[in-house]
Design a protein that fits this description.
Layout: H1 3-16, H2 26-35, E1 42-48, E2 56-58, H3 71-82, E3 89-99, E4 102-110, H4 119-131, E5 136-137, E6 141-144, E7 178-185, E8 190-196, E9 203-206, E10 209-211, H5 218-224, E11 228-230, E12 236-239, E13 242-244, E14 250-254, H6 259-273, E15 277-278, E16 282-284, E17 292-298, H7 302-311, H8 315-330, H9 336-349, H10 373-384, H11 389-394, E18 418-425, E19 428-436, E20 442-450, H12 458-469
Parallel strand pairs: 4-5, 4-6, 5-15, 6-16, 9-12, 10-13
Antiparallel strand pairs: 1-2, 1-20, 3-4, 3-17, 7-8, 7-14, 11-12, 18-19, 19-20
């Protein structure tokens, strides 16, 4: 063997069979020690997207609760199985006789799980109904939800009124949520509250007073406002605490109404606002075979919808997508178990072994969902090499720029150089995504922490992203004139 070829063969053997590091980087270990999380409760994998072996593997095959990074499994599967251009369809039928602009009968809405049928989208749908010649409904509005099997509401982390605990629904509208907007009134020291949609029977108790101090987020914000909510036929929202002037205009989303009351109230409000007349009831039912098709409302394409799911970790939308997979691939009524089987079949076709995988609802909002860091890394490498890679990567938060990563690692060299999904439950914290290192190489980085102090693990997770970004340039094999097959491209496909 010629000397140059011999050296090249040795380097190739070393780089292709390199043993991955079996210990966490020292900076990650230090960050874990600061908050009292043992390394035994952590899993991590770092892998070059062009390599067949990992750079780092630590507890890589241990099943963990991944929190919201489970959305990567759901969204990548959906892109592959449904296609980036897939759209949800909400159908409208007239069940009765039309006389001029009057429908002597029922209007039927049949949902297929659109996760982005927002307040504005419903307004457009109802405008379209009127454009098709119906302004007065002299019957009921019938809602056909049978594309999804009924799903019980599951409360996570004792947050009964948070929108992320809303159950899936084949005709989900506006996440069944109210948006309270707080508007400070400096001259009076008070706070005005606006609500959308402004549904009937809602009572708002507002004794908020402006105060000094910083503007907290999440639960701390609600506690400062002493926010409490009382469901029922006449729901009440109470805000009786202090409102920091530094919050300026601020929103809070609350799921306060029962599903049927919420949709009925919104339909009455919007239909009346656009000049329609309807005095009937809203009830569940089926579109009769002889009903007249009026129109079909289409959602934005899947590639756009998953940006909301991944960048902002929208649990309700992820659960809608998960059941959509079941409905489209296994037939309605869609059930979570059928979605899980469809994803398992797809993983087998992709040759991704994930024997430890457990999926309950596809969003990560679960105490039972499990996956290993190694399986997540394998999934991300496979996604990088797939035709839908651009859509998946574009849906992930950009480090220090947007989504759930917008406030992390600002001013750090890794800022702007990673697309990383985050996950958070009371006892789980995780990251998974892609990092473009300073050496020009791109890596998959995955880290999962399952521990009572997991919400304090951001420093350790960020340390892994920095370590990945700081990887040195890989060893290069000596060039040789005959190393390329005739016609082969020197670039990665």
């Amino acid at each position: 063997m010629k000397p140059v070829l011999a050296v090249w063969a040795v380097v190739l053997a070393l780089t292709s069979n390199a043993t991955p590091a079996a210990e966490l980087p020292s900076e990650v270990l230090r960050a874990l020690r600061v908050v009292g999380i043992p390394a035994s409760d952590v899993s991590a994998v770092v892998r070059n997207v062009d390599a067949d072996s990992a750079l780092l593997e630590f507890n890589a095959r241990e099943p963990r609760n991944p929190a919201s990074v489970m959305k990567l499994v759901t969204t990548y599967a959906a892109l592959s199985l449904l296609g980036p251009a897939y759209r949800w369809r909400t159908e409208v039928f007239a069940d009765g006789v039309r006389r001029g602009e009057v429908l002597e009968g029922n209007l039927v809405l049949r949902g297929r799980g659109d996760p982005k049928l927002t307040y504005e989208a419903l307004w457009l749908l109802l405008r379209a109904v009127q454009a098709h010649g119906v302004r007065e409904i002299r019957g009921d509005v019938i809602v056909d939800r049978t594309f999804f099997a009924p799903v019980a509401t599951a409360q996570i982390d004792d947050e009964a009124f948070r929108p992320y605990n809303v159950a899936p629904d084949a005709l989900l509208v506006n996440f069944k949520s109210l948006r309270f907007t707080f508007l400070p009134q400096a001259e009076s020291g008070s706070v005005r509250i606006a609500v959308e949609p402004e549904l009937p029977n809602l009572q708002i108790v507002n004794t908020l007073r402006l105060a000094e101090g910083g503007c907290p987020e999440g639960r701390a914000f609600r506690e400062l406002l002493q926010a409490s909510f009382e469901p029922g036929p006449s729901p009440r929202a109470l805000f009786t605490g202090r409102y920091p002037a530094s919050c300026a205009e601020h929103d809070m989303n609350v799921a306060l109404y029962a599903p049927q009351e919420y949709l009925a109230g919104m339909l009455r409000q919007l239909w009346s606002e656009i000049g329609g007349r309807w005095n009937g009831q809203l009830r569940d039912g089926l579109a009769p075979p002889g009903a007249e098709p009026l129109l079909v409302h289409e959602s934005p394409p899947l590639a756009e919808v998953i940006r909301d799911i991944n960048k902002f970790s929208n649990n309700v939308m992820a659960r809608q997508l998960y059941l959509t997979l079941a409905g489209e691939l296994r037939g309605p009524p869609a059930e979570g178990g059928q979605a899980y089987l469809a994803i398992r079949d797809w993983l087998a076709q992709r040759k991704i072994a994930a024997p430890e995988l457990v999926m309950e609802n596809g969003s990560g909002l679960s105490r039972s969902e499990r996956i290993s860091a190694a399986s997540l890394a394998a999934l991300l490498v496979d996604a990088w090499r797939s035709p839908v890679m651009p859509e998946l990567v574009a849906s992930l938060p950009i480090v220090a720029i947007d989504g759930t990563m917008r406030r992390r690692l600002r001013g750090d060299p890794v800022a702007g150089h990673g697309h990383v999904k985050t996950g958070l439950l009371n006892d789980a914290r995780s990251i998974a995504g892609y990092v473009e290192a300073r050496n020009g190489q791109r890596y998959v980085a995955v880290m999962i922490v399952n521990h009572a102090k997991a919400p304090q693990a951001d420093g350790a997770l960020d340390a892994l992203l920095r370590w990945t970004y700081d990887q040195p340039a890989p060893a290069r094999a000596p060039a040789r004139a005959t190393s390329r097959r005739p016609g082969a491209s020197p670039h990665h496909p």
